[in-house]
Automatic annotation (TrEMBL):
<feature type="compositionally biased region" description="Pro residues">
    <location>
        <begin position="231"/>
        <end position="241"/>
    </location>
</feature>
<dbReference type="GO" id="GO:0051301">
    <property type="term" value="P:cell division"/>
</dbReference>
<dbReference type="InterPro" id="IPR019440">
    <property type="entry name" value="MAU2"/>
</dbReference>
<keyword id="KW-0539">Nucleus</keyword>
<keyword id="KW-0132">Cell division</keyword>
<feature type="compositionally biased region" description="Polar residues">
    <location>
        <begin position="263"/>
        <end position="281"/>
    </location>
</feature>
<feature type="region of interest" description="Disordered">
    <location>
        <begin position="1"/>
        <end position="98"/>
    </location>
</feature>
<keyword id="KW-0159">Chromosome partition</keyword>
<dbReference type="GO" id="GO:0007064">
    <property type="term" value="P:mitotic sister chromatid cohesion"/>
</dbReference>
<feature type="compositionally biased region" description="Low complexity">
    <location>
        <begin position="18"/>
        <end position="75"/>
    </location>
</feature>
<feature type="region of interest" description="Disordered">
    <location>
        <begin position="118"/>
        <end position="317"/>
    </location>
</feature>
<dbReference type="Pfam" id="PF10345">
    <property type="entry name" value="Cohesin_load"/>
</dbReference>
<dbReference type="GO" id="GO:0007059">
    <property type="term" value="P:chromosome segregation"/>
</dbReference>
<feature type="compositionally biased region" description="Polar residues">
    <location>
        <begin position="195"/>
        <end position="207"/>
    </location>
</feature>
<feature type="compositionally biased region" description="Low complexity">
    <location>
        <begin position="169"/>
        <end position="185"/>
    </location>
</feature>
<feature type="compositionally biased region" description="Low complexity">
    <location>
        <begin position="305"/>
        <end position="317"/>
    </location>
</feature>
<dbReference type="GO" id="GO:0005634">
    <property type="term" value="C:nucleus"/>
</dbReference>
Length: 946
């Protein structure tokens, strides 16, 4: 509190109001002088009565007791006018009022009086909680009396407060209007007043003072002012003391500058104490008295007081810098996250350095705050959680994050912060998984058991979903433990009626079964889809993300089953669903959070709070929410374009539709704009950008493979360049790019480079036929690479019988019983067309051709059907005269035109011309031959790619 706070409202910052305040003070002084003249007669009578009582020796013990208490009390400043005016009016305590005669030029103040209660002689009088200072006239010590102490005190109070008229209150004058204003007086707890001066205060003796100058000490009722704030003592300047007084005198206090009035309070070592006891209020400012001018006391020591003067230089303490550190840290993180999307796309060195600087500054502020000893427990636990989360997301300092989280968990255990404890353990599991996956799986199961013991179902869901994500990241999503974890999760959700949690658990289980590709994988996937379908009438399950993910799972299952006619219907349903939710605000355009409702438990409020909003959030009513990260609308549209193009590739009526759909996927990410509301860490943004780049690269590869089927090798090379420029991460895209490169060199007639790629170690086949690196994609591409080698080895310049026999022996057990029909069909095509010496018979060729034709029709694969018909014409009807041979040649040519492959079209037209010539149809033979030559030249021209 400053001096301006002691002024009435409206005058602290108004010069006119201050002048008006001084005028009111002068008017009150004039009124008081008039009242003093009227009270002289009453005072004289009262003084005579007091002299008679003071002459009695029985009063000696009482006045000696009051004198000792007076010497032991610290001095407090006079109260401001607003506090004095807030006390009850004097008329309510008319028999407790007293007046004082004018002594010299001193200004007298009137206050409501408090009747001092009686205390036994052996007990110390208790101090009031808050007292207003009272004038302290000089006192005279009287000889002891033989009357009982309590009787003397009662008679003294009765005589002292009798016949006193009401007196107006006079406020303390902190802002005098002129130098002639009366000086401010200070009083102690016993009501005695004194005046401060530069001279040392004289030592009080037991010499009796004149009778008129010894009024009885007065008290103020503490119950009236217990709730009033404590006022700082006015800064006074020393002034010469008049010769007529024995007490020090303080001149009018000048106005203090505002900068000093707002200083920080600190301790003071020059204040008297009361026998090592604290004053009534710890926040009360103590009077600053120089050591040479301190009042001497016979029984009081000197100790520190709770005075709080302003800190020199305006410096701030560490307690005030703590909020500033936290604000600066959060501002740095917010600014870094806002620019993360732009930085992730360009990765300019200057922008990355600026981002690292912002993150380092924020981490430094949090680290400094954590080293403070001013933290209360919950703030310390929250700071540990925040500091560790930034370390995990933005840095690679895993050990420091684990140490900080361990410290936060210890604080939570000590103070029973269950919400912060579970959230810290959740983050600690992520940290431990990056360092030791096996230990993370073991420890997370312990946490799940503990949550089940205490029936904290919300965190059971959170930890089980986290374990499922660990299985996905480690590539063990198809293991028995991963599927068992999802089944336990869905069982708890089904028992409690958390239908959204149940739907997500069944969805993840269906994806796991889709990856396994075991004998009964399709049945298990359809069972999971059926379990979710039972909840289609429940509104709590209809989230846009769940609906789209369920449709994508169902469509992927149909594509793996090679039921393309059913896939067409499902892809149309998916397209309509995406069109309906295209403008939905419940689903963000980019990947965001999905809130799954959970029925609230009675003890859930102890484990969920605003600090756990990254994992669990408190909802309205009887519902809480589990936070899951899902794909956004842009990602859903991209996957829809991918699936739509794959389905269109098997339809002969739309040969170019697949390429256009995949081009839309690439265009979707190339034209994506930076969202101003985007706020994620750079690590998360880089993950999203990596995923987007992978989808775009996958679309480029699909476009290149589709272009290879129509012998558009220039476009294949363009797609290869686009993929290399995107620099995809190592993984399935790497081997897909390698396979597309081998197709390009083989299709452009560069057989030596094609053989070099097909013999790459990444495309080697496992002799046992097991999955290579646990990936079905790598295994299938390795089989296709080996089949391409067999076809190239049929060329006279590249023929190698030993290598051919080795490849045939390696491929036969793997391909003949392969569950994938497309692999069996491709193997049969190669075996039917290749020549393996005398061991190859016509009957074997017929059996292989039969498999090719059946597989191509079942798959509705135009390319396979065209190749199968032309190979059959070449192996079975070469140089044969008859209608059957001519029909076979015409069927092959017609199917080749449907496929759009220029090379196969030229081959089919050449065989048709030969069949016409064998039948004697020379005109038709010439037309077919000319067409074949034109197509062959066109195919050769397409192989000339610079």
């Amino acid at each position: 509190m400053t001096y301006r706070d002691t002024m009435p409202q409206g005058q602290a910052f108004n010069a006119h109001g201050q002048q008006q305040f001084h005028q009111q003070q002068q008017q009150q002084q004039q009124q008081q002088q008039q009242q003093q003249q009227q009270q002289q007669q009453q005072q004289q009578q009262q003084q005579q009565q007091q002299q008679q009582q003071l002459q009695q020796p029985a009063q000696h013990h009482q006045y000696q007791y009051h004198y000792q208490q007076q010497q032991r009390q610290p001095q407090l400043p006079l109260p401001p006018q607003q506090f004095i005016q807030s006390a009850p009016p004097p008329t309510a305590y008319s028999h407790y009022q007293n007046s004082y005669p004018a002594i010299g030029n001193q200004q007298q103040y009137q206050h409501n009086q408090y009747v001092q209660p009686t205390f036994p002689q052996s007990q110390r009088q208790p101090q009031p909680h808050q007292l207003l200072p009272q004038p302290q006239p000089q006192r005279q010590v009287q000889p002891p009396s033989h009357q009982p102490h309590h009787q003397q005190q009662q008679s003294h109070q009765h005589q002292n407060h009798a016949h006193q008229p009401p007196q107006p209150q006079q406020s303390a004058q902190f802002y005098p209007s002129s130098s002639s204003a009366p000086p401010a007086q200070l009083g102690n707890y016993n009501g005695a007043a004194f005046h401060q001066q530069q001279q040392p205060s004289p030592v009080l003796t037991n010499t009796p003072a004149p009778a008129p100058a010894a009024p009885v000490p007065q008290f103020v009722n503490p119950s009236l002012l217990q709730n009033q704030p404590v006022l700082p003592s006015p800064v006074s300047q020393p002034a010469p003391s008049p010769a007529t007084t024995m007490s020090p005198k303080i001149p009018p206090a000048p106005r203090r500058p505002p900068a000093q009035a707002q200083g920080v309070r600190s301790g003071n070592t020059n204040s008297p104490r009361i026998e090592n006891r604290q004053p009534p209020s710890k926040n009360a400012p103590a009077l600053q008295i120089p050591k040479e001018n301190r009042r001497q006391s016979t029984g009081a020591g000197v100790a520190k007081s709770p005075a709080t003067p302003a800190t020199p230089g305006g410096s701030t303490t560490h307690a005030e810098t703590l909020p500033l550190l936290l604000c600066v840290a959060e501002d740095c993180f917010r600014k870094a996250d806002a620019a993360a999307q732009k930085i992730a796309r360009t990765m300019a060195p200057s922008e990355v350095a600026e981002h690292h600087k912002l993150v380092a500054t924020g981490l430094g502020c949090l680290d400094t705050a954590l080293k403070s000893n001013k933290l209360w427990p919950r703030l310390e636990a929250r700071l540990c959680l925040r500091y560790a989360s930034v370390l995990i997301e933005q840095t690679t300092n895993i050990m420091e994050a684990e140490t900080t989280l361990t410290r936060g968990i210890a604080v939570c255990d000590k103070n029973r912060f269950l919400d912060l404890k579970y959230c810290s353990q959740f983050l600690l599991m992520k940290t431990l998984f990056q360092r030791n996956q096996k230990a993370a799986f073991k420890l997370i199961e312990t946490h799940i058991t503990d949550c089940g013991t205490y029936k904290h179902v919300h965190w059971i869901y959170a930890f089980r979903f986290l374990k499922a994500s660990f299985h996905l990241q480690s590539g063990t999503a198809t293991d028995h433990q991963a599927i068992d974890n999802l089944r336990k999760l869905s069982g708890v959700a089904h028992m409690r009626g958390d239908k959204a949690i149940f739907a997500i658990a069944m969805l993840l289980e269906g994806l796991a079964h889709l990856t396994t590709m075991k004998d009964d994988w399709a049945t298990r996937v359809q069972m999971c889809i059926a379990q979710i379908g039972k909840l289609q009438m429940d509104a709590s399950v209809h989230f846009p993300q769940i609906d789209v993910l369920l449709m994508l799972l169902d469509l992927a299952c149909s594509l793996h089953q090679k039921t393309h006619h059913i896939s067409v219907q499902k892809v149309n349903l998916l397209q309509r669903k995406l069109d309906e939710i295209k403008s939905s605000e419940d689903w963000p355009a980019q990947s965001g959070d999905m809130l799954l409702p959970i029925n609230r438990m009675p003890n859930s409020l102890q484990t969920i709070s605003k600090d756990t909003r990254a994992v669990l959030r408190v909802g309205e009513g009887n519902v809480d929410y589990l936070v899951l990260s899902t794909i956004g609308k842009e990602e859903a549209w991209a996957l829809s374009y991918i699936f739509n193009g794959i389905v269109a590739h098997y339809r002969s009526s739309t040969p170019g539709r697949s390429s256009s759909m995949w081009s839309e996927t690439v265009k979707l990410y190339e034209e994506r704009r930076i969202s101003p509301a985007y706020s994620k860490s750079l690590t998360e943004t880089l993950k999203e950008e990596t995923w987007s780049r992978e989808v775009a690269c996958y679309a480029h590869i699909l476009i290149g493979l589709q272009a290879a089927t129509i012998s558009d090798w220039a476009k294949v090379k363009q797609c290869l360049d686009a993929v290399r420029q995107s620099n995809p991460p190592a993984g399935f895209l790497d081997i897909l790019t390698l396979y597309l490169e081998g197709v390009f060199w083989q299709g452009s007639a560069n057989l030596s480079k094609a053989l070099e790629i097909w013999k790459d170690k990444r495309l080697e086949i496992e002799p046992s036929g097991a999955l290579k690196n646990g990936s079905r994609l790598e295994t299938e591409l390795s089989i296709l690479a080996a089949l391409s080698r067999l076809w190239i080895l049929q060329e006279p310049g590249c023929k190698d019988d030993a290598e051919i026999a080795e490849l045939v022996d390696l491929l036969r057990p793997i391909c003949e019983d392969n569950p994938d029909l497309e692999i069996r069909t491709a193997y049969s095509l190669v075996m039917a067309s290749a020549q393996f010496g005398p061991t190859s018979t016509l009957n074997q060729a017929k059996s292989y051709l039969q498999v090719c034709l059946n597989g191509a029709r079942e798959l509705n694969n135009t390319q396979h059907l065209s190749m199968a018909l032309n190979i059959m014409r070449s192996r079975l009807f070469e140089n044969v005269v008859g209608e059957q041979a001519l029909k076979s040649a015409k069927a092959g040519a017609t199917q080749a035109r449907k496929s759009g492959n220029v090379l196969w079209m030229s081959v089919a037209e050449g065989m048709l011309a030969q069949s016409h010539e064998m039948q004697g149809q020379l005109h038709e033979a010439r037309i077919a031959h000319e067409t074949g030559v034109r197509l062959a030249n066109e195919a050769y021209a397409k192989t000339r790619v610079d």
